[in-house]
Amino acid sequence: MSEKFDKLSQSLTKHLPEPSVPVVQQNQSVLDKDVTDDYEYSRETYKKLIDNSSEALNGMLALASESEHPRAYEVLSGMVKNIADVTDKLMDLQKKKDDMITKHQKPSQGGVTNNNVFVGSTTDLQRMLMKGDVIDHDQE
Q1: Within a domain: residue 133?
Q2: Which of 38, 79, 98, 137 is the most exposed place for a label (fewest CB within 10 A)?
Q3: Contact assessment for residue 83 and residue 18, using Cβ atoms and an 8 Å cutoff
Q4: Which of 46-50, 67-71, 113-117 is predicted least confidently?
Q5: Angle formed at CA 127 by CA 121 and CA 128, multiple of 5 degrees
């Protein structure tokens, strides 16, 4: 059984062209690097914005407490909302990164697909079938 498989494999590899690497795979590492670099830059920027806003929030809280002016509290509530929005964007950034990586990895995630192709005429195929050179594959 193994001899028949070896003969068929040798015959197929002799007649099939060498597989070429798809352009998508060649550019995969460049794309992953770009996505990672952009993600890191955006993440650091959002973190800096949150840190700076937190410091400004503390100062505005002290000012609002001292002045007890309604406008100061209104500005303070706007700052809290802005910080919450930036924090939410930081979380969305992670999701976008994961989506971009999985979107570009889908072609190579399907596992291994082995396709056997017979190269020859129908007469050659009939001769192979009559001689019993074709391996019967039991379905599991």
Answers
A1: no
A2: 137
A3: no
A4: 113-117
A5: 95
Q: How many domains does the chain have?
A: 1
The pLDDT score that the predictor gives to residue 77 is 92
CA atoms of 79 and 60, how far apart (whole Å): 9
| Residue bearing tokens 């910080």 | 83
Q: Check residue 129 and give its pLDDT.
A: 78
- On whether the CB atoms of residues 86 and 46 are closer than 8 A, the answer is yes
Decide if 86 contacts 47 (C-beta within 8 A).
Answer: no
Residue-range definition of the domain harbouring residue 92:
28-105
Place of tokens 């590899």: 13
Residue 103 has pLDDT above 60, yes or no: yes
47 vs 94: CA distance, rounded Å: 13
80 belongs to a structural domain: yes
- CA neighbor of 52 nearest in space, from 79, 33, 29: 79
State both tokens at 45.
């920027």
Against a cut of 0.70, is the pTM above it?
no
